[in-house]
Amino acid sequence: MASQPLPLDDLAHILAHTQAIFPALQDQRVFLTGGTGFFGHWLLESLLHANRELSLNACATVLTRNAEAFRTRAPHIANDPAITLLEGDVRTFAYPTEHHRFVIHAATDSGGQQAQRPAYELAESILEGTRHTLKFALQTKATRLLFTSTGAVYGRNITGLTHISEEYPGAPDPLALVSSYDEAKRMSEHLCVAYSDQTHLQCSIARCFAFVGPHLPLDAHFAIGNFIRDAIAGTPIHIKGDGTPLRSYLYMADLAIWLWTMLFTAPANRAFNVGSEEQHSIGSLAHLTAHTLRPGLRVQIDGTPKAGAPVSTYVPGTQRAKQELGLTQHISTEQALLRTAAWHGFTPA
């Protein structure tokens, strides 16, 4: 079943905040891994929108495991003449012969999916995919590469902080199997720096936290997606824990602005947190979702917070992105909920 295009308002919002930098793609090619995923849909549709509006004559080569499936799911992207689909695995794909000035390496399973395969397979897939993509970037003589990393490189169950900055010294436990995703991303960051050393390639690293918007699965391990699903269906929102962990969610149109800005302008070999500083406890997020989308919807929280217990935080500090790249959040969590639900055909009564 084909997915619907992104809202024109969102595409216009992205272009309004990237119009000054998109001319870097004039007559250029960009190579994108992960182009058929959550991030990829937004990057490709915003690229195609800029291509049309600014007459960039830009092209994108998109790596995909199954080209025909992507054409069926997203014909408005796959059938655009600016798009070339390259079928293959991120670890072994055949290198295109055309020159690509820009590379975006966004292919990976999310950390929450690691239980679906042995820990070593997930780690090796991430590392081998990053290494193979970096080798291609050097071969094609790309000048800039953006790697989408994760806030999980700081470790998990962080307490005692409201926001996590790039200087936070924490790290995943390398002996814990659940750290395979986190450790592979950390090592991939290092590979980016190592492969670009004394070469023409400039790598920038986006440490991405949590996001919401069209194309986010509503039936997976993403809390906000599940809350939106329940609100649309009119069923109670159910939290099995105590609802205290702190989280934040950046709307995907803002994410696209941040990623394009980083690709074109971020300093080489420097990491930036990417996400929203607008923090919510899981419990308050559930109530906000209910109040925004279906007032009166019941929220059930099974657990009871323990007085004095440490609160887990997964909220980025983004001062570096604000100060060095001029980036900011434009769309609030409440507006993000409304826009995401509207894309799914739901409007609050």
UniProtKB/TrEMBL annotation:
Keyword NAD: yes
Keywords: Decarboxylase, Lyase, NAD
Gene Ontology BP annotations: D-xylose metabolic process
Pfam family for this entry, one: Epimerase
GO CC annotations, alphabetized: cytoplasm
Alphabetized GO MF terms: NAD+ binding; UDP-glucuronate decarboxylase activity
Cofactor(s) this protein cannot do without: NAD(+)
NAD-dependent epimerase/dehydratase domain location: 30-275
PANTHER family: UDP-GLUCURONIC ACID DECARBOXYLASE 1 (PTHR43078:SF6), UDP-GLUCURONIC ACID DECARBOXYLASE-RELATED (PTHR43078)
Protein name per Swiss-Prot or TrEMBL: dTDP-glucose 4,6-dehydratase
Organism name: Granulicella pectinivorans
